[in-house]
UniProtKB/TrEMBL annotation:
It holds the Pfam family ANAPC_CDC26. This is Anaphase-promoting complex subunit CDC26. GO terms for cellular component: anaphase-promoting complex. InterPro entries: APC_suCDC26. Residues 73-85 have a biased composition (Polar residues). Component of the anaphase promoting complex/cyclosome (APC/C), a cell cycle-regulated E3 ubiquitin ligase that controls progression through mitosis and the G1 phase of the cell cycle. The APC/C complex acts by mediating ubiquitination and subsequent degradation of target proteins: it mainly mediates the formation of 'Lys-11'-linked polyubiquitin chains and, to a lower extent, the formation of 'Lys-48'- and 'Lys-63'-linked polyubiquitin chains. The APC/C complex catalyzes assembly of branched 'Lys-11'-/'Lys-48'-linked branched ubiquitin chains on target proteins. Coiled coil: none annotated. Residues 28-85 are annotated as: Disordered. Belongs to the CDC26 family. Pathway: Protein modification; protein ubiquitination. The keyword Oxidoreductase does not apply. GO terms for biological process: anaphase-promoting complex-dependent catabolic process; cell division; protein branched polyubiquitination; protein K11-linked ubiquitination; protein K48-linked ubiquitination; regulation of mitotic cell cycle. It is found in: Nucleus.
Amino acid sequence: MLRRKPTRLELKLDDIEEFESIRKDLETRKKQKEDVDVVGGSDGEGATGLSNDPKSREQMINERIGYKPQPKPSNRSSQFGNFEF
């Protein structure tokens, strides 16, 4: 493997300003989200997706990832079909 000299990175004033603006943007979004959660939580409807029922949580995850589980067959003939020998 060939060795090369490390690349020098320079931090410019424009980069710092861009970083600060993006950071402030994210902070304001986070505060807005927290405010919405607090307001929605007082109604009792804000946490509809956060129920403690594991079945509904599993269904929500399956819907989100696009998984549609098929029911398991109950007997061996349905697993292998009707084979006649």
